Amino acid sequence: MSENAPEYLDFIKDAVAKDVAEGKTKAVRTRFPPEPNGWLHIGHAKAIFVDFGVAEYFKGECNLRFDDTNPEKEDISYVEAIKRDLRWLGYDWADREFYASDYYETLYELARKLIRMGLAYVDDLDEDEIRAYRGTNVPDKNNITYTPPGKNSPWRERSVEENLDLFAKMRAGKFADGAKTLRAKIDMGHPNLLMRDPVMYRIRREPHYRTGTAWCIYPMYDFQHPLSDAIEGVTHSLCSLEYEIHRPLYNWFIEHCEVFPSRQIEFARLNLTRTVLSKRLLIQLVRDKKVAGWDDPRMPTIAGLRRRGYSPEAIRDFLGRIGIAKTDSMVDIQLLEHCVRENLNKKASRHMAVLRPLKLVIDNWPKGQVEFLEAVNNPEDPAAGTRKIPFTGELFIENEDFRELPPPKYFRLFPGNQVRLRYAYIITCTGFDKDPVSGEITAVRCSYDPATRGGDAPDNRKVKGTIHWVSAEQAVDFEARLYDHLFAVDRPMDVAPGTSFLENFNPQSLEILSGAKGEPALACVEAGTCVQFERLGYFCADKSVLNADEDSKPGALVFNRTVGLRDTWAKIEKKG
Length: 576
Ligand code: ATP
Ligand code: MG
What we know:
The radius of gyration is 31 Å and the shape is elongated. The chain has about 575 residues and is an alpha/beta fold. The strands form eight sheets. A seven-stranded mixed sheet has the order 14-27-28-29-25-26-15, with helices on one face. Strands 23-20-21-22-16-19-24 form a seven-stranded mixed sheet, with no helix packed on it. Bound molecules: adenosine-5'-triphosphate and magnesium ion.
């Protein structure tokens, strides 16, 4: 697992190594701290890669800690989904599974300690007043942003005794939701707004999925997170760059609570084109039913990628290639697609399937004859061997592989032209049947040349096109789900004020073809397995993460398109 980790851990590895060399750190311990308010996405996979990778590199440990101090949004189903995805990615946290909600009592005591030190107070200002007193960044006359000092709360100078008493009453449920908060007493003139007496506790009568109604006060992230790290003896708390501005506060709580000196180090978060990486936004797609669920194959969630046909190796390959930087950037989703394509090219067995079938009749084929032709399973892997595919007088070909009137440079079937049927024979198009009413072409007619079995022409004649096919009698039916990017633009969040990112949703992100036909071997492809449909792309037999009834099975086959065959990324890379 994460065999590539060391090279890619880059500056984080160096920072940790320095702490170890200087004797500040004895045994390295990191943590991955998801909030159970949604399913993990590929951005989290990057954080996991870093957190577990650093621990592994330094022969330390990585805790899985659920950062569950926000009762409104959290749920046990998310805890389960997160653990399932972590396991699938190949990570093992053994018995190091923790919950910030288990620390409520300890956190409460640490808050009391700050009160006793004169470093925390109960405030009666409401949320809006707190914001107004804190102040905000404003442009000066030269349009340079500056931050005028805020204003102290009139309740800031309460005595230690009064604060201890009021805080106990807050816990005991004596006050209404929002009526009081506990705040750290730092500096209302601090240039970093987060340091202006941040709220540590709020009153919220909302049952928590683990602690039930035991608490009606809940600790805020900035107070809870550093102290949870310290309680667990986390030496290096690795997180994405948006937490950089929180670091002084992280250090303030650690220092003044006099607890284990955990150290926060930030790295660039992963942003990907044509998708969104934020649970808050992903949940909107699920709730608005823009997608079928968290594991919809269009979703950038781990479960969605898995259902789409990605393997943990392809995801790790991608994370290794993008590396870990100190500044945010946008990664082209085509790089992710390139990684899964390379991965599947090596391991996916090849099959023939027709997505939009058009009947092809071979008029000179002996009536009722079935011939079995040999086909290579995977040209990249000789050990994968060969298989026999049935060939008959009526076949299905791809609708777009025939044109009544061919455009220039069209080398596929049209009246009078020859093509090679993959692994089979060279055929000549002799005509077609047309429905007199609708004008629709109902069948293409051709003759085959028996001397060309296997597709080779004995007379070296030039045949430019090769097309795929399946036997009409022996084909299996399946549903093809053609997935495309979730959003139609690279940066879906770039929208005019007052409009939603949902307006950039790609209405063509899913096309369902119910009448697709495949060679008989497809009936045996197990749900969750990926194959290549020759000339069409990589497809994965559908496997739902939550509901096995939905899985692809004989008689109800469903194949999800993982990615097409054309590698747009390789071209981009070549151009530089
Ligand atoms: P989201 O906005 O998706 O809810 P979050 O940061 O609120 O993300 P958490 O569950 O709190 O989600 O995050 C757990 C860890 O994953 C944090 O350490 C966070 O830094 C990291 N993380 C979240 N998103 C990304 C990302 N896009 N790239 C890298 N790391 C990320
Ligand atoms: Mg969060």
